[in-house]
Amino acid sequence: MGGTRLSRLHTLTVRGLLTALLLLPLGMVLAPGAAAAPRAAPVRVMPLGDSITGSPGCWRAVLWNRLLDAGHTDVDFVGTLREQGCALAHDGDNEGHGGELVTDVADRDLLPGRLAATRPDIVVMHFGTNDVWSNVSPDRILAAYTELVAQMRASNPDMRVLVARLIPMNPATCAACARRVADLNARIPAWAEATSTGRSPVTAVDQWTGFDTATDTYDGVHPNAAGDEKIAARWFPALSALLEEGVPGGGPGDGDPVCTASFRVVARWQGGHQAEVTVRNASSVPVSGWTVTVVPADGARLTQVWNGTLTASADGTARVADAGWNGALAPGASTAFGLVATAPATSTAPAAAVDCAATP
Protein backbone atom coordinates (compact mmCIF):
# COMPACT_ATOMS: atom_id res chain seq x y z
CA MET A 1 0.00 0.00 0.00
CA GLY A 2 3.06 2.19 -0.46
CA GLY A 3 4.01 2.79 3.17
CA THR A 4 2.24 2.43 6.48
CA ARG A 5 -1.42 1.48 6.77
CA LEU A 6 -3.86 4.34 6.95
CA SER A 7 -4.54 5.56 10.46
CA ARG A 8 -8.17 4.49 10.11
CA LEU A 9 -7.23 0.87 9.50
CA HIS A 10 -4.58 0.99 12.22
CA THR A 11 -7.12 2.28 14.72
CA LEU A 12 -9.62 -0.43 13.83
CA THR A 13 -6.95 -3.12 14.17
CA VAL A 14 -5.78 -1.89 17.58
CA ARG A 15 -9.34 -1.57 18.90
CA GLY A 16 -10.12 -5.09 17.73
CA LEU A 17 -7.04 -6.48 19.46
CA LEU A 18 -7.77 -4.70 22.75
CA THR A 19 -11.36 -5.93 22.69
CA ALA A 20 -10.24 -9.52 22.13
CA LEU A 21 -7.76 -9.34 25.01
CA LEU A 22 -10.34 -7.92 27.41
CA LEU A 23 -12.78 -10.73 26.58
CA LEU A 24 -10.29 -13.48 27.46
CA PRO A 25 -11.08 -15.19 30.79
CA LEU A 26 -8.68 -14.32 33.59
CA GLY A 27 -5.69 -16.65 33.68
CA MET A 28 -6.25 -17.87 30.13
CA VAL A 29 -3.17 -17.67 27.96
CA LEU A 30 -2.34 -18.86 24.50
CA ALA A 31 -0.85 -22.32 24.36
CA PRO A 32 2.92 -22.37 23.81
CA GLY A 33 3.72 -22.39 20.13
CA ALA A 34 0.15 -21.50 19.16
CA ALA A 35 -0.18 -19.01 16.33
CA ALA A 36 -3.05 -17.09 14.84
CA ALA A 37 -4.43 -18.37 11.56
CA PRO A 38 -2.54 -16.84 8.64
CA ARG A 39 -4.22 -13.74 7.29
CA ALA A 40 -5.11 -13.85 3.62
CA ALA A 41 -3.10 -11.49 1.46
CA PRO A 42 -4.99 -8.35 0.45
CA VAL A 43 -6.48 -8.17 -3.03
CA ARG A 44 -4.21 -6.01 -5.18
CA VAL A 45 -6.10 -3.53 -7.39
CA MET A 46 -4.30 -1.46 -10.04
CA PRO A 47 -6.02 1.77 -11.20
CA LEU A 48 -4.65 2.12 -14.77
CA GLY A 49 -4.93 5.04 -17.15
CA ASP A 50 -3.80 8.61 -17.80
CA SER A 51 -4.24 11.90 -15.92
CA ILE A 52 -7.94 11.22 -15.28
CA THR A 53 -6.78 8.28 -13.18
CA GLY A 54 -3.53 9.69 -11.84
CA SER A 55 -3.35 13.38 -11.17
CA PRO A 56 -4.93 13.93 -8.78
CA GLY A 57 -7.39 11.11 -9.52
CA CYS A 58 -9.59 11.87 -6.53
CA TRP A 59 -12.18 9.36 -7.73
CA ARG A 60 -9.69 6.75 -6.51
CA ALA A 61 -9.85 8.25 -3.02
CA VAL A 62 -13.65 8.31 -3.06
CA LEU A 63 -13.73 4.70 -4.27
CA TRP A 64 -11.18 3.58 -1.65
CA ASN A 65 -13.27 5.02 1.18
CA ARG A 66 -16.48 3.52 -0.19
CA LEU A 67 -14.79 0.12 -0.18
CA LEU A 68 -13.70 0.58 3.45
CA ASP A 69 -17.17 1.69 4.50
CA ALA A 70 -18.61 -1.43 2.83
CA GLY A 71 -16.25 -3.69 4.80
CA HIS A 72 -13.67 -4.34 2.08
CA THR A 73 -10.66 -3.66 4.29
CA ASP A 74 -8.31 -6.22 2.71
CA VAL A 75 -7.75 -4.25 -0.48
CA ASP A 76 -4.42 -2.82 -1.61
CA PHE A 77 -4.37 -0.26 -4.41
CA VAL A 78 -1.10 -0.79 -6.30
CA GLY A 79 0.94 1.04 -8.92
CA THR A 80 4.42 2.40 -9.53
CA LEU A 81 3.12 5.94 -8.88
CA ARG A 82 2.29 7.30 -5.45
CA GLU A 83 -0.57 9.59 -4.38
CA GLN A 84 -0.71 12.60 -6.71
CA GLY A 85 -2.33 15.47 -4.88
CA CYS A 86 -5.77 14.43 -3.64
CA ALA A 87 -6.23 15.62 -0.06
CA LEU A 88 -8.72 12.89 0.93
CA ALA A 89 -7.03 10.11 2.93
CA HIS A 90 -6.68 6.95 0.83
CA ASP A 91 -4.29 4.37 -0.53
CA GLY A 92 -2.82 6.48 -3.31
CA ASP A 93 -0.76 3.95 -5.30
CA ASN A 94 -1.81 3.99 -8.96
CA GLU A 95 -0.74 3.59 -12.60
CA GLY A 96 -2.25 6.79 -13.98
CA HIS A 97 0.40 8.47 -16.15
CA GLY A 98 -0.60 11.94 -17.30
CA GLY A 99 -0.47 12.43 -21.07
CA GLU A 100 0.00 8.75 -21.95
CA LEU A 101 -1.72 7.13 -24.91
CA VAL A 102 -2.87 3.56 -24.46
CA THR A 103 -1.60 2.81 -27.98
CA ASP A 104 1.84 4.10 -27.03
CA VAL A 105 1.90 1.98 -23.86
CA ALA A 106 1.09 -1.07 -26.00
CA ASP A 107 3.53 -0.22 -28.81
CA ARG A 108 6.42 0.37 -26.39
CA ASP A 109 5.65 -2.62 -24.11
CA LEU A 110 5.51 -0.36 -21.05
CA LEU A 111 2.94 -2.36 -19.08
CA PRO A 112 4.79 -5.66 -18.39
CA GLY A 113 7.40 -3.98 -16.20
CA ARG A 114 4.72 -2.13 -14.26
CA LEU A 115 2.80 -5.36 -13.73
CA ALA A 116 5.91 -7.18 -12.58
CA ALA A 117 6.60 -4.45 -10.01
CA THR A 118 3.07 -4.45 -8.55
CA ARG A 119 1.48 -7.90 -9.23
CA PRO A 120 -2.21 -6.85 -9.36
CA ASP A 121 -5.14 -9.25 -9.09
CA ILE A 122 -7.61 -6.76 -10.57
CA VAL A 123 -7.05 -3.91 -13.04
CA VAL A 124 -9.45 -0.96 -13.14
CA MET A 125 -8.76 0.74 -16.49
CA HIS A 126 -9.94 4.13 -17.80
CA PHE A 127 -7.56 4.62 -20.70
CA GLY A 128 -7.71 6.17 -24.16
CA THR A 129 -8.64 9.81 -23.62
CA ASN A 130 -5.35 11.09 -25.07
CA ASP A 131 -5.69 8.69 -28.02
CA VAL A 132 -9.15 10.08 -28.78
CA TRP A 133 -7.78 13.62 -28.53
CA SER A 134 -4.98 12.63 -30.95
CA ASN A 135 -7.53 11.20 -33.42
CA VAL A 136 -6.30 7.62 -33.05
CA SER A 137 -8.88 5.27 -34.55
CA PRO A 138 -11.09 3.03 -32.39
CA ASP A 139 -9.54 0.02 -34.18
CA ARG A 140 -6.08 0.92 -32.94
CA ILE A 141 -7.28 1.73 -29.42
CA LEU A 142 -9.13 -1.57 -29.09
CA ALA A 143 -6.12 -3.43 -30.48
CA ALA A 144 -4.04 -1.80 -27.74
CA TYR A 145 -6.62 -2.84 -25.16
CA THR A 146 -6.35 -6.42 -26.42
CA GLU A 147 -2.57 -6.38 -26.16
CA LEU A 148 -2.65 -4.95 -22.64
CA VAL A 149 -5.12 -7.62 -21.52
CA ALA A 150 -2.82 -10.31 -22.93
CA GLN A 151 0.06 -8.82 -20.95
CA MET A 152 -2.08 -8.72 -17.81
CA ARG A 153 -2.92 -12.41 -18.24
CA ALA A 154 0.74 -13.25 -18.78
CA SER A 155 1.42 -11.56 -15.44
CA ASN A 156 -1.54 -13.28 -13.75
CA PRO A 157 -3.65 -15.88 -15.63
CA ASP A 158 -6.56 -15.16 -13.24
CA MET A 159 -6.55 -11.40 -13.84
CA ARG A 160 -9.89 -9.62 -13.49
CA VAL A 161 -10.23 -6.52 -15.68
CA LEU A 162 -12.74 -3.67 -15.41
CA VAL A 163 -12.64 -1.42 -18.49
CA ALA A 164 -14.45 1.91 -18.64
CA ARG A 165 -16.60 3.33 -21.36
CA LEU A 166 -14.75 6.63 -21.09
CA ILE A 167 -16.27 9.72 -19.53
CA PRO A 168 -17.36 12.25 -22.18
CA MET A 169 -14.98 14.85 -23.59
CA ASN A 170 -15.79 18.36 -24.76
CA PRO A 171 -12.60 20.46 -24.55
CA ALA A 172 -12.61 23.93 -26.09
CA THR A 173 -9.66 23.00 -28.33
CA CYS A 174 -11.09 19.76 -29.76
CA ALA A 175 -14.54 20.11 -31.27
CA ALA A 176 -14.42 16.57 -32.70
CA CYS A 177 -13.50 14.87 -29.41
CA ALA A 178 -17.08 14.50 -28.19
CA ARG A 179 -18.01 12.45 -31.27
CA ARG A 180 -14.78 10.44 -31.23
CA VAL A 181 -15.16 9.28 -27.63
CA ALA A 182 -18.77 8.32 -28.34
CA ASP A 183 -17.64 6.23 -31.32
CA LEU A 184 -15.06 4.40 -29.21
CA ASN A 185 -17.46 3.85 -26.32
CA ALA A 186 -20.03 2.29 -28.63
CA ARG A 187 -17.60 -0.54 -29.37
CA ILE A 188 -16.18 -1.24 -25.90
CA PRO A 189 -18.95 -3.53 -24.54
CA ALA A 190 -18.72 -5.91 -27.52
CA TRP A 191 -14.93 -5.87 -27.31
CA ALA A 192 -15.06 -6.69 -23.59
CA GLU A 193 -17.47 -9.58 -24.16
CA ALA A 194 -15.29 -11.02 -26.94
CA THR A 195 -12.10 -10.65 -24.89
CA SER A 196 -13.49 -12.04 -21.63
CA THR A 197 -12.77 -15.63 -20.59
CA GLY A 198 -14.11 -17.74 -17.75
CA ARG A 199 -10.77 -17.65 -15.98
CA SER A 200 -9.99 -14.00 -16.68
CA PRO A 201 -13.22 -12.00 -17.08
CA VAL A 202 -13.23 -8.58 -18.73
CA THR A 203 -16.16 -6.34 -17.76
CA ALA A 204 -17.16 -3.04 -19.36
CA VAL A 205 -18.21 -0.40 -16.82
CA ASP A 206 -20.33 2.48 -18.13
CA GLN A 207 -18.68 5.73 -17.06
CA TRP A 208 -20.27 7.54 -20.02
CA THR A 209 -24.00 7.57 -19.36
CA GLY A 210 -25.18 10.39 -17.07
CA PHE A 211 -21.78 12.13 -16.96
CA ASP A 212 -22.05 15.81 -17.97
CA THR A 213 -18.90 17.66 -19.02
CA ALA A 214 -20.57 20.99 -18.16
CA THR A 215 -21.17 20.10 -14.50
CA ASP A 216 -18.83 17.16 -13.84
CA THR A 217 -15.52 18.47 -15.25
CA TYR A 218 -13.54 21.66 -14.78
CA ASP A 219 -12.18 21.80 -18.35
CA GLY A 220 -14.38 19.56 -20.45
CA VAL A 221 -12.07 16.58 -19.84
CA HIS A 222 -10.94 16.13 -16.23
CA PRO A 223 -13.48 15.44 -13.47
CA ASN A 224 -14.23 17.91 -10.70
CA ALA A 225 -15.50 16.82 -7.27
CA ALA A 226 -18.95 15.99 -8.67
CA GLY A 227 -17.36 13.99 -11.45
CA ASP A 228 -15.13 12.11 -8.99
CA GLU A 229 -18.22 11.03 -7.06
CA LYS A 230 -19.92 9.79 -10.24
CA ILE A 231 -16.85 7.85 -11.42
CA ALA A 232 -16.39 6.19 -8.03
CA ALA A 233 -20.10 5.33 -7.89
CA ARG A 234 -19.85 3.51 -11.23
CA TRP A 235 -16.69 1.56 -10.34
CA PHE A 236 -17.91 0.57 -6.88
CA PRO A 237 -20.55 -2.09 -7.65
CA ALA A 238 -18.40 -3.79 -10.29
CA LEU A 239 -15.30 -3.85 -8.09
CA SER A 240 -17.23 -4.79 -4.97
CA ALA A 241 -18.78 -7.74 -6.81
CA LEU A 242 -15.33 -9.06 -7.75
CA LEU A 243 -14.11 -8.68 -4.16
CA GLU A 244 -17.14 -10.53 -2.79
CA GLU A 245 -16.74 -13.28 -5.37
CA GLY A 246 -13.13 -13.81 -4.32
CA VAL A 247 -10.00 -13.53 -6.42
CA PRO A 248 -7.76 -16.57 -6.97
CA GLY A 249 -4.08 -16.18 -6.18
CA GLY A 250 -2.18 -14.81 -9.12
CA GLY A 251 1.32 -15.25 -10.43
CA PRO A 252 3.16 -15.83 -13.69
CA GLY A 253 1.72 -18.72 -15.66
CA ASP A 254 3.68 -21.97 -15.77
CA GLY A 255 1.58 -23.60 -18.49
CA ASP A 256 0.19 -21.95 -21.58
CA PRO A 257 2.40 -19.74 -23.74
CA VAL A 258 1.10 -16.25 -24.51
CA CYS A 259 2.25 -13.88 -27.23
CA THR A 260 1.30 -10.29 -27.99
CA ALA A 261 1.44 -8.30 -31.22
CA SER A 262 1.77 -4.54 -31.78
CA PHE A 263 1.28 -2.62 -35.05
CA ARG A 264 3.45 0.34 -36.07
CA VAL A 265 3.23 2.37 -39.29
CA VAL A 266 6.62 2.83 -40.97
CA ALA A 267 5.64 4.79 -44.09
CA ARG A 268 2.47 6.02 -45.77
CA TRP A 269 1.63 7.09 -49.32
CA GLN A 270 -1.49 7.71 -51.38
CA GLY A 271 -3.22 4.34 -51.66
CA GLY A 272 -1.11 2.35 -49.26
CA HIS A 273 1.32 2.05 -46.38
CA GLN A 274 4.15 -0.01 -44.91
CA ALA A 275 4.00 -1.25 -41.33
CA GLU A 276 5.88 -3.42 -38.87
CA VAL A 277 4.29 -5.87 -36.40
CA THR A 278 6.28 -6.82 -33.31
CA VAL A 279 5.57 -10.23 -31.78
CA ARG A 280 6.56 -10.77 -28.15
CA ASN A 281 6.49 -13.81 -25.85
CA ALA A 282 4.56 -12.42 -22.89
CA SER A 283 4.57 -15.65 -20.87
CA SER A 284 7.04 -17.43 -18.62
CA VAL A 285 7.35 -20.47 -20.91
CA PRO A 286 8.93 -20.77 -24.39
CA VAL A 287 6.92 -20.20 -27.56
CA SER A 288 7.75 -22.54 -30.44
CA GLY A 289 5.68 -20.72 -33.05
CA TRP A 290 3.15 -17.95 -33.52
CA THR A 291 0.37 -16.72 -35.81
CA VAL A 292 -0.79 -13.10 -35.90
CA THR A 293 -4.27 -12.15 -37.11
CA VAL A 294 -4.26 -8.73 -38.79
CA VAL A 295 -7.54 -6.88 -39.44
CA PRO A 296 -6.72 -3.67 -41.38
CA ALA A 297 -8.93 -0.62 -40.91
CA ASP A 298 -10.77 1.38 -43.57
CA GLY A 299 -10.77 -1.30 -46.25
CA ALA A 300 -6.99 -1.77 -46.46
CA ARG A 301 -5.62 -5.11 -47.75
CA LEU A 302 -2.26 -6.75 -47.05
CA THR A 303 -0.40 -7.47 -50.30
CA GLN A 304 3.10 -8.36 -49.15
CA VAL A 305 4.75 -9.71 -45.99
CA TRP A 306 8.36 -10.46 -45.11
CA ASN A 307 9.71 -12.48 -42.18
CA GLY A 308 6.37 -14.28 -42.10
CA THR A 309 3.94 -16.35 -44.16
CA LEU A 310 0.78 -14.58 -45.34
CA THR A 311 -2.69 -16.11 -45.70
CA ALA A 312 -5.34 -13.56 -46.72
CA SER A 313 -9.15 -13.82 -46.63
CA ALA A 314 -11.69 -12.21 -48.94
CA ASP A 315 -12.90 -9.88 -46.18
CA GLY A 316 -9.41 -8.42 -45.72
CA THR A 317 -8.52 -10.36 -42.58
CA ALA A 318 -4.97 -11.70 -42.86
CA ARG A 319 -3.07 -14.30 -40.89
CA VAL A 320 0.68 -14.16 -40.71
CA ALA A 321 2.53 -17.21 -39.38
CA ASP A 322 6.17 -17.23 -38.36
CA ALA A 323 8.75 -17.97 -41.06
CA GLY A 324 10.18 -20.93 -39.17
CA TRP A 325 13.50 -19.42 -38.22
CA ASN A 326 11.81 -16.70 -36.11
CA GLY A 327 9.07 -18.83 -34.52
CA ALA A 328 10.86 -19.87 -31.32
CA LEU A 329 10.80 -17.15 -28.66
CA ALA A 330 12.16 -17.41 -25.13
CA PRO A 331 10.13 -15.72 -22.35
CA GLY A 332 10.29 -11.97 -22.91
CA ALA A 333 11.90 -12.28 -26.37
CA SER A 334 10.45 -10.62 -29.46
CA THR A 335 10.69 -10.63 -33.23
CA ALA A 336 9.03 -8.64 -36.02
CA PHE A 337 7.63 -8.94 -39.52
CA GLY A 338 6.98 -6.27 -42.12
CA LEU A 339 4.02 -5.73 -44.40
CA VAL A 340 2.76 -3.60 -47.25
CA ALA A 341 -0.94 -2.84 -47.63
CA THR A 342 -3.07 -1.11 -50.24
CA ALA A 343 -5.82 1.26 -49.08
CA PRO A 344 -8.71 3.21 -50.66
CA ALA A 345 -8.08 6.85 -51.46
CA THR A 346 -10.62 7.80 -48.77
CA SER A 347 -8.70 5.89 -46.06
CA THR A 348 -7.68 7.82 -42.93
CA ALA A 349 -4.56 7.14 -40.87
CA PRO A 350 -3.37 3.52 -41.37
CA ALA A 351 -4.37 1.19 -38.56
CA ALA A 352 -5.02 -2.47 -37.89
CA ALA A 353 -6.22 -4.67 -35.07
CA VAL A 354 -3.65 -7.39 -34.37
CA ASP A 355 -3.93 -10.49 -32.17
CA CYS A 356 -1.33 -13.19 -31.55
CA ALA A 357 -1.78 -16.92 -30.93
CA ALA A 358 1.21 -18.86 -29.59
CA THR A 359 2.23 -22.48 -30.14
CA PRO A 360 3.70 -24.35 -27.15
- Provide the structure class: alpha/beta
Q: For the residues shown, what is the average pLDDT?
A: 86
Fraction of residues in H or I helices: 25-40%
- Radius of gyration from the alpha-carbon trace, in angstroms: 23 Å
Distance between the terminal alpha carbons, to the nearest Å? 37 Å
What does this entry look like structurally?
The protein is α/β, with parallel strands linked by helices. It is about 30% helix and about 25% strand. The chain is built from 10 helices and 14 strands. Strands 1, 2, 3, 4, 5 and 6 form a 6-stranded parallel β-sheet that branches. Helix 3 crosses helix 10 and helix 7 (about 140-155) crosses helix 8. The longest helix is centred in the middle third of the chain and has 21 residues, at about 225-245. It is globular. It starts with 6 loop residues before the first helix and ends with a strand. The relative contact order is 0.12.
Main attributes of the structure:
single chain, 360 residues, alpha/beta, 6-stranded parallel beta sheet, 4-stranded antiparallel beta sheet, disordered N terminus
Tell me the layout of helices and strands.
Blueprint: H1 7-23, E1 43-49, H2 51-54, H3 58-69, E2 75-77, E3 95-96, H4 102-107, H5 111-118, E4 122-126, H6 129-133, H7 138-155, E5 160-165, H8 177-195, E6 202-206, H9 213-216, H10 225-245, E7 259-269, E8 272-281, E9 289-296, E10 301-306, E11 309-312, E12 318-321, E13 334-342, E14 352-359
Parallel strand pairs: 1-2, 1-3, 1-4, 4-5, 5-6
Antiparallel strand pairs: 7-8, 8-13, 9-12, 9-14, 10-13, 11-12
